[in-house]
């Protein structure tokens, strides 16, 4: 499928897909007219990349993970380590956001009491 169709199926903009390709996060086949050709296996991969981005993984770490993925199953242990480190980061961020949320709720409650 071409980039527009792929963008619709994944919910990821064409410009983001081009950016991912430019940074080497995705490898895309091309047709005789040099148009990008995506297949169904690319759908879950780019959705996963988007989730990594949304959870705050750095582009550098995403690139390292992607490079290892394209190298094959011999890199599974390295990819696991990257994801474990990132999971720790996400957990730390979640705890911070819980505290921020509690602080906001406390402040809102204080304002309600003042009224």
UniProtKB/TrEMBL annotation:
The UniProt GO MF terms for this protein read: DNA binding; DNA-binding transcription factor activity
Q: Which organism is it from?
A: Anaeromicropila herbilytica
Q: Could you tell me which residue ranges the HTH merR-type domain spans? A: 1-68
Tell me which Pfam families the record gives. MerR_1
| Alphabetical keyword list | DNA-binding
Q: Which InterPro entries match?
A: DNA-bd_dom_put_sf (IPR009061), MerR-type_HTH_dom (IPR000551), MerR_fam (IPR047057)
Q: What is this protein called?
A: MerR family transcriptional regulator
